[in-house]
Write a structure and sequence with these properties.
The protein is built from 14 helices and no strands. By secondary structure, the protein is an all-alpha fold. Helix 5 runs antiparallel to helix 6, helix 7 runs parallel beside helix 9 and helix 11 runs antiparallel to helix 12.
């Protein structure tokens, strides 16, 4: 058993050193990695995973002759499992990085493969631990939440670099589109799982729940606005309508930041408002009202400066129709909600305290 632990520790150190010295620089290099590095990364990852699985299995049957308080079997078991999860994540990320590089032959798009593999890993692990009592359950949720925030760096920036070539050539790769929207779909699924479970594990922590809801709404707005930028370029490419050679990504955002972004934020805000009303989430309802007011100010103060007279008339007409429909639907939504008991009208904190007191 001691020999196995020593061998496993040595392999883990070699694997970590290989990542720091070989694989990590490759992720940010300007060229595709050599075949020797690709094979080396796959073999090392699979080897360390096999060694950790074997050690994890052996720990069930052996008891190490060490002080139980500091070196108990349970702590060794958790340590090996932690190394195993890290090795699985790194190996899957390396496989995703290499696979996307081979499919797209685009150097600056390989980080999307790393993100896609990581999102798959966290979705699988969250679902796996959902039915188990484990000390890894909550830390895994928070690590996955932090990983989701790598989307702008690993996916959006990669897509922005790829967009530059499309803007000037109208040449688009279906493999790139498929992988991009696969990464986006996995991000949405991972976000749904993480937000749902963090809310469930923090019923009494109202500030955390409200902050998480606010971050989720802002992140959704960011995704929709950036995807609108992508679709603008894709539709131009599909129509074989190459933009000017001097057009840049910033020019595209400058064109979309007026009415298109306003409409996107407007639609999201209305959806969030009605969802908050139906779920009696006062904080999100107030956030939606503030954001909607900010969108109206943006439309009249900034967007109208670049719109034609006909577009301004259309905006006024649409706003009038919207407020008319809102005035009809909102009272009906309120009327259809079940009536809360008196204690349930005092807010989430009082609600939780009362629920806890009456169900003890």
């Amino acid at each position: 058993m001691w020999i196995s632990l020593i061998a496993m520790s040595g392999m883990a150190l070699v694997y970590i050193a290989s990542w720091l010295r070989i694989y990590l620089p490759v992720l940010f290099a300007d060229t595709l990695p050599a075949n020797e590095i690709i094979i080396h990364g796959i073999v090392c990852g699979l080897t360390i995973i096999g060694a950790l699985l074997a050690t994890r299995y052996l720990l069930k049957d052996y008891d190490l002759p060490l002080p139980k308080k500091m070196f108990g079997k349970r702590k060794h078991y958790r340590l090996v499992r932690t190394f195993l999860l890290v090795a699985l994540f790194l190996t899957l990320g390396w496989l995703g990085f290499i696979t996307v590089g081979q499919l797209t032959a685009t150097r600056n798009f390989q980080l999307v493969g790393l993100f896609t593999a990581g999102a798959l890993f966290f979705i699988a692990m969250i679902n796996f631990y959902a039915g188990h009592q484990s000390a890894f359950k909550k830390p895994l949720l928070y690590v996955a939440f932090g990983f989701a925030f790598l989307y702008p760096i690993m996916v959006h920036w990669s897509m922005a670099d790829y967009r530059i070539g499309i803007i000037h050539s109208s040449d688009i790769s279906w493999n790139v589109l498929l992988i991009h929207y696969l990464a986006l779909g996995l991000l949405l699924q991972l976000g749904r799982l993480v937000v749902k479970r963090i809310h469930r594990h923090n019923v009494k922590n109202t500030p955390l729940r409200e902050g998480l809801s606010l971050v989720t709404v802002l992140f959704l707005i960011f995704i929709l606005c950036t995807e609108y930028d992508n679709l603008s370029v894709f539709m131009s490419a599909f129509e074989n309508n190459a933009l000017s050679q001097t057009t840049t990504g910033l020019d595209l955002i400058s064109a979309n930041k007026y009415l298109p972004y306003s409409v996107i934020i407007w639609v999201v805000t209305v959806g969030v408002f009605f969802r908050a009303v139906m779920r009696r989430q006062k904080f999100l309802r107030d956030v939606a009202i503030v954001v909607f007011a900010a969108v109206l100010i943006k439309i009249f103060a900034f967007d109208f400066g670049v719109l034609s007279q006909g577009a301004k008339s259309a905006v006024f007409l649409i706003l009038g129709i919207f407020f008319l429909i809102f005035a009809i639907i909102y009272p009906r939504v309120l009327k259809g909600l079940p009536v809360l008991p008196e204690w349930g009208r005092r807010g989430d904190k009082a609600n939780a305290r009362e629920h806890e007191r009456t169900h003890d």
